[in-house]
Amino acid sequence: MNFSRLISLALCAAAASASRLFVSSYAGNVTSLALTEKDGAYSLTPTYNATECGTSPSWLTLDATNGLLFCVNEGMATSNGSLSSFRVNQDGSLSHVQNLTTLAGPVHATLYGNPSGRRGIVLAHYGSAISTYTLKAAGPGDAGVDFSSSQTFTASPGPVADRQNAPHPHQAILDPTGKYMLVPDLGTDQIRVFSYNSDNLALNPLDSLVTDPGAGPRHAAFWTPNGVSCENCTTFLYVVNEISGTVASYKVSYRENNAGLRFELKDTQNALGHLVSPQRNAPSEISVSPDNRFLLIGNRNDTTFNPPNKDKSATIKSDSISTFALNGDGSLMFVQAAPAYGSYPRHFSTNKAGNLIAVGLQKSSEVVVFNRDVVTGLIVKPVAMARIEGEVSSVVWNE
Ligand SMILES: *[C@@H]1O[C@H](CO)[C@@H](O)[C@H](O)[C@H]1NC(C)=O
Ligand SMILES: *[C@@H]1O[C@H](CO)[C@@H](O)[C@H](O)[C@H]1NC(C)=O
Ligand SMILES: *[C@@H]1O[C@H](CO)[C@@H](O)[C@H](O)[C@H]1NC(C)=O
Ligand SMILES: *[C@@H]1O[C@H](CO)[C@@H](O)[C@H](O)[C@H]1NC(C)=O
Ligand SMILES: *[C@@H]1O[C@H](CO)[C@@H](O)[C@H](O)[C@H]1NC(C)=O
Ligand SMILES: *[C@H]1O[C@@H](CO)[C@H](O)[C@@H](O)[C@@H]1NC(C)=O
């Protein structure tokens, strides 16, 4: 192949590209959207709705490698939640496989597994529990799951009575070595730490990370500055606190003999950096950018910005997305708060290249895709948006 042919192929790839998003909404649908780009102009089009995840889908977990999508239904109007699994088809449609009734109020789910290929999924239940399920197949085969175990928490609640009346597990994340599961508990100001049984994948509680009283930890993200994961590798944990509106950095070290983790507080900052939010901020999601250099946080209720609406006829009250640069000692340097172009960015996801970020706006019933400068880490401007019926709860890329 000659050089000019290579260039024309590259131009061709740049001129038209497509990827997909899956979006969950509390109105009851999981929507598949196609994002296409041609000569720098993007469009975002809903192509399929799945209705099987029940009335209040709260979270989507994509297993892109095996073409499976898991959805938890918070079951707001009922005393139980549910877990649904789907096979992802080439055209972005979803084939429903199974529903299982779960404990009340699942709000997050994470895949994990053991070295021999046994796989499972952990659910965090806002209604004071975690539960685990094993997957029927290690690979793309059977998308079914079986119930494995559950634990209900009763620890004494935190000081903010209206939000901390009981334990409220909000997420489950694996540490970079894949050995421990961490569960931020908004109701009791701790990040619960578990190891897991390599046979049935049930979780065993270890010592927790205790946050400031009234912090309300919601979600967390790990960072390995050198991009390598091992027990002796430098590792940090960033926790976004929904009630105090802060982000806390911890240095993580591994205890000997699989005895758990130690945490050393390195930095605590306002989730909006040095900006003063007009209203009380209730930050939501936190993640490290794909280039491993920046931390992104969704700010809700802050109403820091007034960007123009779609036809530029008026301005809208907008919450924001914060970007911090990650320093080698674990501390954070505020870089930017960018308008989210709407209200309550409950969840966001960056694409693999890190040049696009999709934001799910819970109260605006919209998904907005922004372009992002991978060198500076700055979110630049909205490039596409789609209206989604109801309150948007999560948005994931399927590339
Ligand atoms: C999905 O549902 C919405 C209503 O919320 C509807 O406007 C849209 O046409 C549906 N999309 C498809 C592809 O069926
Ligand atoms: C449904 O909820 C009830 C009440 O919380 C609980 O006892 C039961 O175990 C739940 N069912 C399942 C299948 O988790
Ligand atoms: C980590 O380092 C310690 C000494 O600093 C060593 O004893 C231990 O074997 C190392 N652990 C691993 C998993 O490499
Ligand atoms: C939003 O901000 C207002 C004004 O500060 C406050 O009264 C309200 O409690 C905040 N909502 C949340 C969910 O934090
Ligand atoms: C959900 O999707 C179905 C099928 O496309 C559609 O008929 C319905 O209007 C959608 N409901 C909402 C609330 O978006
Ligand atoms: C899961 O099963 C499908 C049909 O197989 C139903 O349509 C859904 O309503 C059901 N979902 C829940 C949460 O029960």
Description:
There is one protein chain. Strand 12 and strand 13 form a beta hairpin. This protein is mainly beta and 399 residues long. It has a four-stranded antiparallel beta sheet. A four-stranded antiparallel beta sheet has the order 4-5-6-7, with no helix packed on it. A four-stranded antiparallel beta sheet has the order 8-9-10-11, with no helix packed on it. Helices cover 3% and strands 51% of the residues. InterPro entries: Cycloisomerase_2, Haem_d1_sf, Lactonase_7-beta_prop, WD40/YVTN_repeat-like_dom_sf. Belongs to the cycloisomerase 2 family.
What is the 3D shape?
Answer: globular
* Rg for CA atoms: 21 Å
For the residues shown, what is the average pLDDT?
A: 94
Q: Which percent range fits the helix content? A: under 10%
Structural class: mainly beta
Ligand names = 2-acetamido-2-deoxy-beta-D-glucopyranose
Major β-sheet, in short?
A: 4 strands, antiparallel
The number of distinct helices, counting runs of at least 4 residues, comes to 1
Proportion of beta-strand residues: over 45%
Brief digest:
With 399 residues, the protein is mostly beta strands.
Feature tags:
399 residues; 1 helix; binds 2-acetamido-2-deoxy-beta-D-glucopyranose; disordered N terminus; mainly beta
